[in-house]
Amino acid sequence: MPHPLLPGEDGNHPTFCRLCEAFCGLIGQVKDGRVVSVKPDPENPSSQGHMCVKAPAIMDITYSESRVTKPLKRTGKPGEFSPVSWDEALDDIARRLRAIITEGGGDAFASYVGNPAVFSARGWLAAENFTGALGSGKRYSPCSQDTAPRHVASRWVFGSDFLSPIPDLEATDFLIILGSNPLISHGGLLTAPRMRHHLNEISSRGKVVVIDPRRTETARVFEHVPVKAGTDAWLLAAMLRLILEAGLADTDFLAHYVKGWDSLTEALGDFNVERAAAICGIDALKITEMALAFGRTERAAIYSRVGICRTTFGTITNLLIDALNIACGKLGRRGGVMFGFNPLSGGRAPTTGIPRSRIGDLPGAAGFLPCIALPDDILEKGRGRVRALMVTAGNPVLSAPAAPRLVEAVRDLELFFSLDLFVNETNRFAHYILPTTTFIEREDIPMLGFSHMVRAYAQYTPALVRPQGEAREEHEIYRDIAARMGISAPYPSRILRMMGWLGVNVDPMALFDLALRTGPAGDRFGLTKRGLSISALKKHPHGILLDDTAVQENWRKKIAHRDGFIRLWNAEIAQEMERLRNHKYDAGLKLIGRRHLKSLNSWMHRVDKLVRSQTPTLLVHPEDAAERGLSTGDRVRLSSRTGSVEVLVECSDEMIRGTLSYPHGWGHLDDETMVNINLLVPDRPEQIEQVSGASILDAIPVTLERMA
Ligand SMILES: Nc1nc2c(c(=O)[nH]1)N[C@H]1C(S)=C(S)[C@@H](COP(=O)(O)OP(=O)(O)OC[C@H]3O[C@@H](n4cnc5c(=O)[nH]c(N)nc54)[C@H](O)[C@@H]3O)O[C@H]1N2
Ligand SMILES: Nc1nc2c(c(=O)[nH]1)N[C@H]1C(S)=C(S)[C@@H](COP(=O)(O)OP(=O)(O)OC[C@H]3O[C@@H](n4cnc5c(=O)[nH]c(N)nc54)[C@H](O)[C@@H]3O)O[C@H]1N2
Ligand code: SF4
Ligand SMILES: [Mo]
Fold first, then answer.
1. Are 22 and 4 contacting, i.e. CB atoms less than 8 angstroms apart?
2. Is residue 220 within 8 Å of 566, Cβ to Cβ?
3. Which residues contact residue 408 at a Cβ distance below 8 angstroms, ignoring those fewer than 6 apart?
4. Is the pLDDT of residue 548 over 90?
5. Is there a single domain that holds both residue 176 and residue 298?
6. Residue 670 has what pLDDT?
7. Is the pLDDT score of 556 beyond 60?
8. β-strands 659-661, 589-592: how paired?
């Protein structure tokens, strides 16, 4: 075996991308201590040579002139910073944090850990432990803008927020996709880097149907069923009823493994196909054809993601998708849906308490509080008020709702520090910005992908190069702040804390090693030959496929309800079905978002060669435009109950009538022509989805007005 290259050593370093959940294998060529090219890795057994345009942009990010490479202290107005030494920054942060917590308790500190942070295994684990070690239950993240309804439906159905079924893309013959555009996004809560290949194969064996208000890049290639935004729950309820009436339910499976099916079917009474057709804008015959084809195809699966998670009925929509997969006997069957293989933990899926917001008593999901509660948590006086905030790898002023109130709130903080690569619209208000590493500057494993991989794989990558400037790894920064506060061991378990007190520095990677070695494919410290450990992974620098042959059959062991049953009914489900039945859909215009291949949420817009070809526009169906006397290139005022912005119209028959689309993540301070669409989304705690705390980001009622 050739010796593994050291960070910074000249040569071709195998690694993997950590920008999205596809985790594509890459080869980074290092010359004179810098990465000079990033190419796909044909030897990576998972991605097999796939990569998208964003991966090489990590070089532009890493070597960007505007990157923060020294600790910054705010010395003037928001955005005005001066470099300081690490010691000065960390000493001051630790001193102030300690005083705030001594006086106000652990909950006076809150963390917001943004999307890119979950792609760093060590950083993510250390952030969790750091928040906990400070005695704070105030964890915020983009969860409420992303996965919250999926987590809550999983809690109801499978007993764990962390158990979400993934489609068996390798074997399914009929795939229904709702609220996802995987040819652009490469999927979420799903790791399948060769997405296009999988979908093409399914389509040649059978069919891929894309249910979406927009004829997306994915919908264009496969069968598109346009749906009115925010109405999917009706469609799915009607499909479930059709399955029942056609006798296509898998009564054996339901009798053996499921509780609550009868109650759910009773509640389907009013959800007939004619009403669904009228509400969803889909022909009743089409709905019937889809339902029957799904029920009759042995290897069939429904997959959904963010497009149905941020509407008023996100959680019940996710539940109905689970119910369809389960009632038709697709769970745990080849070509149906399954729980991915997680080499870090076997057996029952983990459970977590449901955090509740201090103001508004809103529930959280996956251990995270809903972001809508953050501004009030800072602004409203009282016990447990947030006085210190840490934002790692996040930009909630652009990505979350209620930006104006959030800006007002962060100005009120006694301490605000951020770990980031750049000054952004949120951390420009911080007292300190601490520079961190990019993914080519740190070692890692694809931790986030475990349990969502269609074909389980693992890889260990060392850092390719040394950090630019004075950038440090996130876990080191947390450790050093904690140490200065007198917390020598910010770890979750007593044994580890003891080791910390004894002066043993437990690197988070050692914890992952322990989890791998004792996990379902682990080497059990030598007892199992060819078992997993970090050092075993080091022998396979391009990554290895894991033996997951029993994935389909093992689903039952993971169910976290004590009795081992799947549940399709509880008081909250009853309440949500009732709310859905009584909901009045209006005919007004609705706004949804979209993602572009060349941008990533709010932050890849910094890469000039990616962003040059992008102008965010409001997509409007030509007839909706004509009715209002609008044409492509017109500037319009787009308004909702919350706010109003000025945007550029692009007429497009990609859109279903009545639905408009504008991408999120824009509104950067240096360019006023592109707006932050989240200024239009509901911004009050009582307006969000109450069962999951999810923000409403899609299907927003809006009006359009031509500018003079
Ligand atoms: N290039 C790129 N890739 C990314 C990202 C990125 O910003 N850029 N972001 C990453 C992140 S953080 C995530 S979470 C994933 C998300 O990945 P996806 O879940 O695939 O997200 P989107 O591409 O936004 O697709 C959502 C789809 O839902 C549709 N939609 C909106 N409202 C409704 C509705 O009411 N009903 C139905 N049926 N559909 C609806 C939209 O038209 C859109 O096509 O992508 C990841 N990958
Ligand atoms: N309207 C609307 N709003 C949305 C969405 C939508 O579809 N529509 N999508 C939502 C979703 S799914 C998500 S996940 C959120 C994302 O929301 P956030 O996570 O709040 O924001 P990002 O835009 O991902 O910003 C990431 C920040 O991390 C920094 N960064 C990048 N890499 C690293 C790193 O390795 N280390 C550190 N420390 N920092 C790094 C970047 O410089 C940037 O400042 O947005 C949500 N908001
Ligand atoms: S698809 Fe995702 S993981 Fe793959 S190269 Fe593109 S951004 Fe990276
Ligand atoms: Mo996301």
1. no
2. no
3. 375, 379
4. no
5. yes
6. 73
7. yes
8. parallel
**Of 580, 607, 628, which residue is a domain's last?**
580
Q: 179 and 258: one domain? A: yes
The set of residues, in sequence order, having a beta carbon less than 8 Å from that of 510 and lying 6+ positions away, is none
Helix (H) or strand (E) holding 409: helix 403-410
- Structure confidence at residue 605 as a pLDDT band (50, 70, 90): confident
The CB of 421 under 6 Å from ligand 2? The reply is: yes
Name the band, by pLDDT with cuts 50, 70 and 90, for residue 614. confident
Ion ligand 4 residue ranges (Cβ < 5 Å) = 146
Is residue 594 a part of any domain in this protein? yes
Ligand 3 binding pocket includes 691 (Cβ within 6 Å)? no
Residue pLDDT, tens place only, 348-373: 999 999 999 999 999 999 999 999 99
- Residue 672 reports pLDDT greater than 90: no
For residue 21, report the distance from its CA to the centre of ligand 4, in Å: 10
pLDDT for residue 669 is more than 90: no
Q: Is 52 in the pocket of ligand 3 (CB under 6 A)?
A: yes
CA atoms within 13 A on the CB side of 464: 27
Asked if the model's pLDDT at residue 380 lies above 90, the reply is yes
- Residue 593 shares a structural domain with residue 575: no
- State in Å: Cα 23 to ligand 4 middle: 15
| Pick from 323-327, 522-526, 668-672: least confident | 668-672
- CATH number of the domain bearing residue 22: 3.30.200.210
Q: Any residues with CB less than 8 A from the CB of 537 and at least 6 apart, and which? A: 445, 458, 459, 460, 516, 543, 544
Domain with residue 85: its CATH number is: 3.40.50.740
Report the alpha-carbon angle 346-158-521, nearest 5. 10
Distance CA 161, CA 363 (A): 13
Q: Does 676 have pLDDT greater than 70? A: yes
Q: How far is the CA of 603 from the centre of ligand 2 (A)?
A: 7
| Same domain membership, residue 479 and residue 365 | yes
In the reported structure, the alpha carbon of residue 689 is separated from the centroid of ligand 3 by a whole-number distance in angstroms of: 31
Last residue of a domain, one of 554, 580, 606: 580
Tokens coding 194: 């060769």
Q: Does residue 219 fall inside a structural domain? A: yes
pTM exceeding the 0.90 threshold for the entire prediction: yes
In a domain, residue 517? The reply is: no
User: What's the total number of domains in the chain?
Assistant: 4
Which tokens hold the place of 540? Answer: 């396979």
Same domain for 299 and 167 = yes
Q: What CATH number did the domain enclosing 679 receive?
A: 2.40.40.20
Residue whose CA is at the smallest distance from ligand 1 atom 4: 185
Mean pLDDT, rounded, for 222-228 = 98
Nearest residue (by CA) to ligand 2, atom 4, is 399
- Ligand 2 nearest-atom number relative to CA 601: 23
Question: Is the same domain home to 325 and 386?
Answer: no
Domain range for 16 is 11-62
Same domain, 30 and 157: no
Residue nearest to atom 23 of ligand 2 (CA): 602
Domain assignment present for 346: no
Q: Where are the beta strands (DSSP E) in 100-211?
A: 109-113, 139-140, 166-167, 174-178, 207-211
Q: Ligand 1, from 17, 52, 185: best to mutate by most atoms within 8 Å of Cβ? A: 185
CA of 213 to the centre of ligand 1 (A): 12
Better pLDDT: 562 or 547: 562
Residue 395 CA, ligand 2 centroid: distance in Å? 6
Considering the domain architecture, whether residues 159 and 280 belong to the same structural domain is answered as yes
